[in-house]
Amino acid sequence: MSKKVYNFNAGPSALPKSVLETAQKELVNFEDSGMSVMELSHRSKTYDSVHQEAKQLLTKLLNIPDNYQILFLQGGASLQFSMIPMNLLKEGQKASYLMSGSWSEKAFKEAQLIGEASIAASTKNEQYKSIPSFDSSTIESTDAYVHLTSNNTIYGTQWQSFPDTKDVPLIADMSSDILSRPLDIEKFGLIYAGAQKNLGPSGVTVVIVRKDLLEQENDNIPTILRYQTHAKADSLYHTPPTFAIYMLRNVLRWVQDQGGALAIQEQNEKKANLLYEAIDQSNGFYTGHATKESRSRMNVTFTLPNEDLTKAFLNEAADKGFVGLGGHRSVGGCRASIYNAVPVEACTALRTFMEEFQQTHS
Ligand code: PMP
């Protein structure tokens, strides 16, 4: 039997155990093909049914309307930081970025290399403790898009509702909270997410794009970097990451079995509340990084009264099987990433540990 661990990794992160077991069972003989799904041609019927089912499940679970297309790409969310402006930011246009953390900064930096991009709102001056407020009257109808990061993996903040950008497409990096709650897709022009937090293993990036945006594309960029290329070929322009897409399909089946996005949201709220209550009831022993209104239900970030206690907390936690609780290397402190596949039981165990640690160290 393997060692009992509670996986709070920030990404790649926990996957549902049943999904891993299915993959194990099917690994060397997928659907009686006599070979692994990894060994199938990406042009075969057997693989195509996996590809199509993954798209159908995502469409159903996120209620994606017909005028949107799903793409399975490679290069992570980071490549999207460049592909978005390359494809959608034309000369004479401006793109606005809403800055809520390091990932927004990275996205903004890439856009500046490609065209005119400006910061429309930012909470950098307050260490990204909250989500910026954004006055949409500052954008012009000719703007290319407005970009935001829906969940800030490093700082532990999350947009609770999204701004109305009228006719200007809203683009969201949902890498760390896609499918954690129901979404009104029609508010967005484009959504993207690396799979390795809520959707599956690393290797595939999901892009959901409104079809009219594909039509205004830029022909001056390399073929493989055009959304249109992938849209026309149903994400089979070149060899897709077939095993990652197979795992994505299996995770989506699991989400469906859990009752879909709403049921998952309820579960996520319960998990986050367990940890935020431990912070709020600790009389200041644990301090949350995010302001209450901006708290993420995916990444709970907190510090202890001093560095020595933080180190002791992380060491003791690791001894007890809690994995991945160190904050991102750029900010330190502690972070519990509680994506969809992290069970309530793991959060209950962490809460108990936090309470016990406080009792013995204060
Ligand atoms: N955006 C966000 C919000 C993230 O959390 C991450 C990864 N942690 C990235 C982008 C970068 O993703 P990738 O490693 O897939 O390029």
UniProtKB/TrEMBL annotation:
L-glutamate binds at residue 43. Belongs to the class-V pyridoxal-phosphate-dependent aminotransferase family. SerC subfamily. Pathway: Amino-acid biosynthesis; L-serine biosynthesis; L-serine from 3-phospho-D-glycerate: step 2/3. It is an enzyme of class 2 (transferase). Its cofactor is pyridoxal 5'-phosphate. Transmembrane segments: none annotated. Its main location: cytoplasm. The gene is serC. It comes from the Bacteria. Keywords: Amino-acid biosynthesis, Aminotransferase, Cytoplasm, Pyridoxal phosphate, Serine biosynthesis, Transferase. The keyword Transferase applies. It is found in: Cytoplasm. Homodimer. It catalyses: O-phospho-L-serine + 2-oxoglutarate = 3-phosphooxypyruvate + L-glutamate; 4-(phosphooxy)-L-threonine + 2-oxoglutarate = (R)-3-hydroxy-2-oxo-4-phosphooxybutanoate + L-glutamate. InterPro entries: Aminotrans_V_dom, Aminotrans_V_PyrdxlP_BS, Pser_aminoTfrase, PyrdxlP-dep_Trfase, PyrdxlP-dep_Trfase_major, PyrdxlP-dep_Trfase_small. Its EC number is 2.6.1.52. The modification N6-(pyridoxal phosphate)lysine is found at residue 197. GO terms for molecular function: O-phospho-L-serine:2-oxoglutarate aminotransferase activity. Signal peptide: none annotated. Pyridoxal 5'-phosphate binds at residues 77-78, 103, 153, 173, 196. Catalyzes the reversible conversion of 3-phosphohydroxypyruvate to phosphoserine and of 3-hydroxy-2-oxo-4-phosphonooxybutanoate to phosphohydroxythreonine. Residues 5-345 form the Aminotransferase class V domain. Binds 1 pyridoxal phosphate per subunit. This is Phosphoserine aminotransferase.
